[in-house]
Design goal:
Strands 1, 2, 3, 4, 5, 6 and 7 form a seven-stranded mixed sheet that branches. The protein is built from eleven helices and seven strands. It is elongated, with a radius of gyration of 21 Å. Helix 3 links the parallel strand 2 and strand 3. Helix 8 crosses helix 9, helix 8 crosses helix 11 and helix 10 crosses helix 11. It is of the alpha/beta class and about 280 residues long. The structure holds guanosine-5',3'-tetraphosphate. The site of guanosine-5',3'-tetraphosphate has 18 residues, from helix 6.
């Protein structure tokens, strides 16, 4: 799981990622399909500069398909190669080697023009903690690779894993830190599991969730908690859900901690259905 990132950790992670990138031809950037912008590292463009890049929208099994489709066009319009995948079940992962090889085509042409024999295309997975890096490496490798700790500097001997005939994958991912600057980004990261549960406030996070659901998925809220209408006032909404679900203290008062925990668990477990926590900004 995630660590708390300090400037020293970040500098080290960045240095390590840059070292790894020197060895590779194509960067695969893994993001969470439910929060594709919030789960991107803030300096990824600098780190991956000059390398062809494939964005992988992972955990797409938990995201809202309509939102994921919008994200696919968003990234395509920005000239990124992009795939939606579910690394856990393997859906979409089989397309990865083909797209990586396509992205390396200019390089292969260059090698050939210099009279060199093309070698396997070398790729690397980069992403923030818990986004699914180990899972996709295992999928692509078709075997279980030991999970390394989410701490920059926890290194082991690196190896290349053969993926099909034309691609090699570095068996250790580049671990990057998440964004911190924006409160909403923090809530999205907390809700999707990129930030440790001990370091965020359940109530604030679920107030954010409820406000978002009220805007983006009102019908889901109504269905799940059997609400005829959604109260305007967020405390009232908490109260109604608390009463419906029996989150009460002695004396019949609402136990807000329990309501918050219930909402958080129900979102995390997918009980509220496939939900995306952010939609692409409109491109001009
Ligand atoms: P990391 O190396 O980037 O840190 O992530 P890792 O592969 O360990 O994956 C983190 C969690 O996300 C794992 O769950 C993993 O099974 C899950 N995961 C990865 N890809 C997908 C996906 O496409 N869909 C879904 N639904 N889950 C995925 P875990 O071990 O149970 O951890 P946690 O969820 O309890 O934190």
């Amino acid at each position: 799981m995630s660590i708390q990132w300090f400037p020293g950790h970040m500098a080290k992670a960045k240095r390590e990622a840059k070292e790894k990138i020197k060895l590779i031809d194509v960067v695969m950037e893994l993001v969470d399909a439910r929060i594709p912008l919030s789960s991107r590292n803030p300096v990824i463009d600098e780190i991956a500069k000059g390398k062809p890049r494939l964005i992988l929208l992972n955990k797409s099994d938990l995201a809202d398909l309509a939102a994921t489709e919008q994200w696919m066009s968003y990234f395509k319009k920005k000239n990124f190669a992009v795939l939606q995948i579910d690394a856990q079940k393997g859906t979409g992962v089989q397309k990865v080697p083909q797209v990586v090889t396509q992205l390396a085509e200019p390089l292969i042409t260059k090698w050939k023009s210099k009279g060199m024999n093309p070698r396997a295309i070398r790729a690397l997975i980069l992403g923030i903690p818990n986004v699914g890096k180990s899972t996709i490496i295992n999928r692509l490798a078709n075997k279980r690779i030991a999970k390394i700790g989410d701490k920059p500097g926890v290194t082991k001997a690196q190896q290349w894993i053969k993926v099909g005939k034309e691609m090699e994958l570095l068996d250790t991912p580049g671990i990057l830190w998440p964004k911190f600057e924006d409160e909403a980004v923090g809530y999205r990261l907390a809700l999707t599991g990129a930030i440790k549960e001990t370091i965020f406030d359940f109530q604030d996070t679920t107030v954010f969730l409820l406000k978002y659901l009220r805007e983006a998925y009102p019908e889901r809220l109504k269905d799940r908690y059997q609400l005829d209408e959604i109260p305007e006032d967020i405390v009232e909404l908490y109260d109604v859900i608390g009463r419906k679900r029996g989150c009460l203290m002695a004396g019949g008062q609402i136990d807000y901690d329990r309501v918050a925990e219930l909402l958080f668990r129900e979102f995390r477990s997918g009980t509220l259905g496939n939900i995306s926590l952010e939609y692409p900004p409109k491109l001009s």
